[in-house]
Please model this.
Amino acid sequence: MKRYSFLELAKNAFSAHQNWGRQWRSPEPKAEYDVVIVGAGGHGLATAYYLASEHGIRNVAVIEKGWLGGGNTGRNTTIVRSNYLWEESAALYNHAIGLWQNLSQELNYNVMYSARGVLMLAHTVHDVQSAQRHIHANRLAGVQNEWLTPEQAKDYCPPLNIEKNIRYPVMGAALQRVGGTARHDAVAWGYARGADALGVDIIQNCAVTGIRRNQNGSIEGVETAKGYIKAKKVGVVAAGHTSVVMDMAGVRLPLESFPLQALVSEPVKPAFPCVVMSNTIHAYISQSDKGELVIGAGTDQFVSYSQAGGIHITNHTIDAICELFPQFRRMRMLRNWGGIVDTTPDRSPILSKTPVPGLFVNCGWGTGGFKATPGSGHVFAHTIAKDEPHPINAPFTIDRFRTGRLIDEAAAAAVAH
Amino acid sequence: MLLIYCPYCQVERAEVEFRCGGEAHIARPSDPEKTTDEDWVEFLYMRANTKGVIAERWRHIHGCGRFFNALRDTVSDNFLTFYKTGEPMPTLETLPQEAGK
Ligand SMILES: Cc1cc2nc3c(=O)[nH]c(=O)nc-3n(C[C@H](O)[C@H](O)[C@H](O)COP(=O)(O)OP(=O)(O)OC[C@H]3O[C@@H](n4cnc5c(N)ncnc54)[C@H](O)[C@@H]3O)c2cc1C
Ligand SMILES: [Zn+2]
Model:
């Protein structure tokens, strides 16, 4: 791998940046791999990277039906935070926060992690109590999170409207300073480049169409658009399409897939210093380094693979944004799109072995898995390599739905995260 | 926004009048005492989450308030048919060719 540096930049300037070379290969699949990962989103690519870098397993393929990072990884609003309620989640998301700190250096790729702070607004008495409960729980779990009065919130985020005469007045906010954003594409590209350099084959435009098992029921390989590929182990990291892929191995999961939307405005000069989320009125907003306001909306109420979503869902979010930030009423919106998110009943992910020997699944991240990308890949690689979970993902099994040990962030967060 | 037909009111209305009730025809175990954990998991949590035609429940929450069922294609979001609670799930063969197109 050619390392990126200031010197490389200067050197390439002499050839007008025409000779940088490709960041990863486009190999044809080999006949057999030790591990096949289905899905080249951030989570799948990170898994492959850590399999190679931490566990020395380099005979790995990541198989992607479209282009890498073209799923939810490239469609999300990039909010990073870890102030979840339960200890299990706090540990998982905080593990990711730890890895974000040094990720650009580790990958030699600027993932633009920006700890600009995530402000979560409270608009009702219930919101205030729930936010403070989170703050106390987080403090006990060693996770940063603090309470701001409306005036302190406005100090932190000057565009915020804290007038009392609006439909959902701001009664305070929880702030996680280490939260923020990162560049979604760069995360996928950085992991892809890193994994490729360690020998991982990334095979794009190649859908997995079947999963083969032997007489004992164990994994034997995958059928793909480019033919049959043998595999000792298979890890499915297919987000919204997980149910479809796992069905190929006869495994049922507690998942439902919904469209989730986002939109961006025309680019403007820096006007918005942090990330603001309001679960109660369904609005998420930050400003990208390009200058676009990045706005997240809610999910549709029904299962769908349409990758679009209802316009009334977006309108609802825009209503809220304009009331909280009146200065944005005259902004023009540029693009709107949807991604298909896989949600579990307790709104916590599944990173688990499955009833099929050799088959592993990493799914259920729903509306909020981008923030966890490094941590998820890290512990999932451990699970595949060692055939047993890392202590951090041990609670995130499929079996928790039988034992009743749910990790209920749904009730805790009210809505999306 | 979806356009939904309530088979009780016999009118088409905008989606915002309705609440989706998820996968249809999931029967609650009839003898809870004898139901295994695995069967409870199936009933409570496991979902087909089909990419293609599904049967799902809708409730006309801002109308008659009643539950009914529908067949919908989850790729195009087009409905194939609507039917009352208690009626059997229509098979695809019995539907007119153009349904859901
Ligand atoms: C609009 C929107 C906003 C969001 N906002 C946030 C946010 O602010 N913060 C946050 O933390 N999270 C957010 N999320 C959630 C986040 O995007 C996801 O949880 C995360 O990106 C999932 O990553 P992944 O790698 O698992 O999935 P993906 O990036 O979707 O990757 C899965 C890949 O599997 C591939 N695949 C599927 N089926 C097959 C097959 N049969 N064969 C081969 N490949 C297959 C797909 O093509 C896809 O590329 C948001 C999501 C959306 C849609
Ligand atoms: Zn009705």
User: Anything to note?
Assistant: Chain B has one helix and six strands. The helical segments of chain B are 37-44.
